[in-house]
Amino acid sequence: MKSQEITKRWVDFFVSKGHTAVPSASLVSSDPSLLFTVAGMVPFIPYLTARETPPYSRATSVQKCIRTGDIEEVGKTARHGTFFQMCGNFSFGDYFKEDAIKFAFELLTTGVENGGYGLPVEKLWVTVYEEDDEARDLWLKNTAIPAERIQRMGKSDNYWSTGQPGPAGPCSEIYYDRGPAYGIEGGPAADDNRYVEIWNLVFMQYQIENVKSKVEFDIVGELPKKNIDTGLGMERLAMILQGVENMYETDQVRPVIDKAALLSGKEYTSAESADDPHHVDDVRMRVVADHVRSALMLIADGVTPSNEGRGYVLRRLIRRAVRSMRLLGVEQACLPELLPASRDAMKGVYPAVELEFDRISRIAYAEERAFLRTIAAGTARLDEAVVLAKAGGSELSGEDAFTLHDTYGFPIDLTLEMAEEAGVAVDEATFRSLMQEQRQRAQADAKAKKGGHADLTVFRELLGQGETVFTGYDELESESRVR
Ligand code: ATP
Ligand code: MG
Ligand code: MG
Ligand code: MG
């Protein structure tokens, strides 16, 4: 079943259950505390927190999401994309646990010929919050899932809150068993690779106060209006329904893997185990396919590369895609081949990526060319430093790595990798302390000159939101860990 059909069935099903179909909001989050839309519920936050009255009591959507926090997992697990689509159904003070559970079970297990997804019941597992006997009983009463496939999980897995005083509540999640070839027996509590999480049902039922962390707070009462917020990963369901090994091989992503394989002359083999000699290259191709798609969708939603905030995330995605191609042996510009492949895979659902492709591709190609120039300029300097280090039998100094970063815009991960190729280690500790010093200097300067963070207000205004979001430095820091 193609992605487009999966989402069509989703919306049709929930509309038939009285939900209003709401189009996806932008990836650029409407919530000022978030850089991006990270879940289907984000556009509904004002309703879920009862700050605004919703125009409907039931809604459904297929929401574009970006989760940069998952970037390290991409290509290594079967199930984490930086971009993905979250199918959701929502109740604002209308139905609660029982119907949410019934709807989920019905849609997943109704036969394909009858408009459902036709998943075999014996492949499904469920988790509930350890104290939520009500949810467990409802699964047992209303569905064919037996008690031995319902597991209890603690707060860190199965409790939802914003980390702020307000609504919170237990979750119940649905997992699909991919079979013994993918890991050990024992349900999702034992193996989250074999048992893939596909759908999270959040039961917002309590008011919490005195919040110390996501798992430490006081429940002060029941919400007057209880809400349902659910999210199913469309790509994860597509991976199951299309019988492929991971979400990067589904119809909206795979064509870019094939293009990367063609350009690099490497075979893509679906390697899942790190012991497989093809694994390293296969992961790179999956990273390329994921990041190219995320870049396409971000630029379509108005993000442009920069050194701060959202633009920095986009820059980093493009650089990681280009770097992965480089590691696959392709040193010339490759987005002009990869981006159209991603566009063609996405345009059926998102016509804007085709209609606006001129603008999107101009931005993406310019960013790739700029990065390739950076690489070219820094390489000569790096080669010199490597020769010196080798002659002296020492590491490449932290000062050299810092100069490459500071003067040539050469990311530390690139330095590490190229030094490693040349058989030279890098004094990373010194590099980090120089970065730290520079940051402190910059902060002191900004304070002295402008009295606080005045320089960031321009950025805040650009974003048209009330809160400054500046992740550039932190992201730079973590870039070194990204290979
Ligand atoms: P996981 O534990 O696998 O990282 P999660 O618990 O972080 O998933 P939720 O926050 O519960 O995910 O989001 C709801 C659903 O969205 C998940 O059940 C999953 O199907 C999907 N999803 C979450 N993160 C991703 C991602 N990075 N790529 C693809 N789908 C995702
Ligand atoms: Mg996660
Ligand atoms: Mg999870
Ligand atoms: Mg979850």
User: Which bin fits the share of residues in helices?
Assistant: 40-55%
Net shape: globular
Cα Rg: 24 Å
Percent of residues in beta strands? 15-25%
Oligomer classification: single chain
Distance between the termini: 33 Å
Low-pLDDT segments: 451-483
> Class of the largest domain in CATH?
Alpha Beta
Largest sheet: 9 strands, mixed
**Fourth-level CATH superfamily of the largest domain:** Bira Bifunctional Protein, Domain 2
What is the CATH architecture annotation of the largest domain? 2-Layer Sandwich
Summarize the structure.
With 483 residues, the protein is an alpha+beta fold. It contains 17 helices and nine strands.
Main features:
9 strands, alpha+beta, 2 domains, cytoplasm, nine-stranded mixed β-sheet, BirA Bifunctional Protein, domain 2, binds adenosine-5'-triphosphate, binds magnesium ion, EC 6.1.1.7, single chain, 17 helices, coiled coil, ligase, aminoacyl-trna synthetase
